[in-house]
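Lecture 7, part 2: worked example. A protein chain together with adenosine-5'-diphosphate.
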Amino acid sequence: MDQTHIDALRAQPVPPFLHLIDGKPVPASDSGTLDVLSPIDGQLLTTTANGTAADMDSAIASARAAFEDGRWAGQPPAARKKVLLKWADLIEANALELAVLGVRDNGTEIGMAIKAEPGSAAGTIRYYAEALDKVYGEIAPTAPDILGMIHKEPVGVVGAIIPWNFPLMIGAWKLGPALAMGNSVVLKPAETASLSLMRMAQLALEAGLPPGVLNAVTGEGKVVGEAMGLSMDVDVLVFTGSGGTGRRLMEYSARSNMKRVYLELGGKSPNIVFADAPDLAEAAKVAAGGIFRNSGQVCVAGSRLLVEASIHDEFVAEVAKATEAMRVGDPLRLDTAIGAVNSETQLRQNLGFVDMALSEGGRVVTGGSRVLEETGGYYMAPTIVTGVTPDASLAQKEVFGPVLGVTPFQTEEEAVRIANSTVYGLAGAAWTSNLSRAHRMVRKVRTGVMHINTYGGADGTVPLGGVGQSGNGADKSLHAIEKYINLKTAWIKL
Ligand code: ADP
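Predicted complex, written out as structure tokens:
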């Protein structure tokens, strides 16, 4: 990956994107399109099909037909594995093209995007391809005249609604296990980050996935996403995104066919720094990266910094220094540490949170404003606010932007109490040299993932899922497979 290659790719025009249904590109049934604005400069990049409910229904019908005739689920596991491995290879072979297209669409800094997007997506698809012929049924310990068998079956049609922050990585977390287990999938990418995911879906067909097994419909969440949620023919709905949408998806399920709904929602993850942390300078650098990468648009972002009072001022100064060293700028430059915010709406929302924090007694230590406005793009300086009380908006509500709130604490008990005082429970971290305290923090802080003396970076071998209003049903690892299978009992009298 070098700058010249990236610059050549960014100069290429992006053709309009259509739905992918039954293996073919299909326009919206009413020919509608959505403008795609690049967050890099606010300019029109291309258009996507603005799907209708009828488009979604036809994608679901195609996925259902593909499932029922067994063109994928009925193939021997070795054949399915071959296709998925080929798909992973194609994603890798087209990694830079996919990453640059994605960055032009969503604004993530390229250095991070290349690893976190095609790199991670290929790895995930490969992981589940390799796992698919290692998922066995079971024989129950029954009376001798009975054979009790537990079959693991694909569920049928999976609907996957994907957010805009890491479309390929998160898309692969759903597509990998869903397809590996033999399901058909209908994808709904996010309005402001559809392009690279649509391209990745096309590559699946090139790898030999039969038409109809993976369909993808672009458009507005409240139109095509709602149609997917309300469908009587989707068996499982998997989602990553905001709590408000997650709540709606549960309602859609209740109002339609009671489809299974798995939600990976937001967080307000506490990064807890004790005075006995092994290396405070390292903790400060990682704390800054843990919130500001991808402009804070990371579900597990460490957005609450809880610092032991005795080191508060000194530690905040270190984090501010590390933050100010992170260059905000053109996300397609390799030396940029923080790229663009995904959309103007999101940027305005972020700035609103800063204003609210100030009105609630917070103090901005660094950042706090829009920058590089002359580019036409959506950029925000990474922002640190101190004096955030545990009940302040900045401590309670997910910003999903580059805003870090700092709260001091006196004791371990107080740190745990503050850490657990939100409706969320996605991720967290504790920095300490005390082994017992480290383990106590893992047990006591209510989250799906707890880091010790690091932040982020958990790979595909371990689950990622939340507790509380951060969601249910983990992505990643072999555990994710459970979402995409049914257990079926065969009770046989011998
Ligand atoms: P954000 O507010 O950060 O954009 P959302 O939860 O709205 O997060 O978006 C995540 C995904 O959910 C996107 O693909 C979006 O299109 C989709 N979505 C938004 N609203 C709905 C809805 N009412 N029904 C189904 N999907 C939706």
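Residues 165 and 297 are 6 Å apart (CA to CA). The mean pLDDT is 98. Keep this in mind for problem set question 3.
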